[in-house]
Design brief:
By secondary structure, this protein is an alpha/beta fold. It has nine helices and ten strands. Strands 1, 2, 3, 4, 5, 6, 7, 8, 9 and 10 form a ten-stranded mixed beta sheet that branches.
Length: 269
């Protein structure tokens, strides 16, 4: 039986999904792959269906948003872990997958683990800044790598946040804290989820000895400029709301001596 299921949420990802599914077929051919397509208009679902028949494809009739699609996909997974991937990820070595799984299996209080993320473009190959580096140790590490002033570390780093572009999740922890908040159509789900993990006493781990390529936001880059601007403004609102709500709940639990809190009863709000 597979230990983890690979979950990919797509939206107009025709130009990226083939490369990622090819990487997965090469590095982890025996793992189940689930694609939730959010009503793509560019033929993404048709391509997955025709070229990758072994993939379990769910083609939503409308774009229900990222958070809701992830919750939909994880509900279909029967494995203890889920590898959540964006379609614009490239996995260049199988070690990434084995290291994430080993981290999850070594400590029951680890809710999520993720590798470093690098970006490649005409300017070169460099580390992506993301939620993963919003802690003192990880922030220092990021700048060392950005300017090539320090060696890669082998030791795992405990962090508050991780980027969901490539993330292995413990399903039991994800369900216990309340899954992704579906009020966030796009953006905001990362700080919300990881502050819930922190609130419930789970650890999140950044693995600095393995990495993937993440081109980031290719679907959004295809949207018209004014629509893109509205998405950015909504993102700011969602992120601020998630941070205030998340830290507020943690402070309330501390002040009322209710840490960790009881099991979350309302998973999507």
């Amino acid at each position: 039986m597979n230990t983890y299921t690979i979950l990919i949420v797509t939206y107009n990802s025709l130009g990226e999904i083939c490369d990622l599914l090819g990487d997965l077929a090469f590095h982890t051919p025996d793992n189940s792959v689930l694609v939730i397509d959010n009503a793509s208009q560019d033929g993404t679902a048709d391509l997955v269906y025709s070229r990758f028949p072994y993939v379990h494809l769910v083609h939503n009739a409308q774009n229900i948003g990222y958070a809701r699609a992830v919750n939909q996909g994880i509900a279909l997974c029967e494995t203890p872990y889920i590898l959540l991937l964006n379609p614009d990820i490239r996995i260049l070595e199988g070690k990434v997958l084995t290291e994430m799984l080993a981290c999850m299996e070594s400590q029951k209080k680890v809710a999520a683990a993720a590798p470093l993320q690098f970006k490649e473009d005409n300017k070169g190959h460099y580390i992506n800044f993301s939620w993963s580096y919003l802690s003192s140790q990880a922030y220092k590490f990021y700048w060392e790598q950005r300017f090539h002033r320090g060696p890669l570390r082998a030791k795992m780093m405990k962090v508050t946040f991780l980027n969901t572009g490539c993330l292995m999740i413990r399903k039991a922890a994800f369900e216990r804290v309340g899954k992704l908040n579906e009020k966030y159509f796009l953006y905001g789900e990362e700080p919300d989820l990881f502050l819930k993990f922190k609130r419930y006493g789970y650890a999140c781990i950044l693995l600095p000895n393995v990495s993937i390529i993440h081109y980031r936001e290719r679907s959004i880059s295809k949207v018209k400029p004014m629509k893109r601007l509205s998405i950015r403004l909504l993102a700011i609102n969602n992120i601020i709301h998630a941070l205030i709500s998340g830290w507020g709940n943690i402070c309330f639990d501390f002040l009322t001596n209710q840490f960790p809190p009881k099991r979350h009863q309302n998973p999507t709000r």
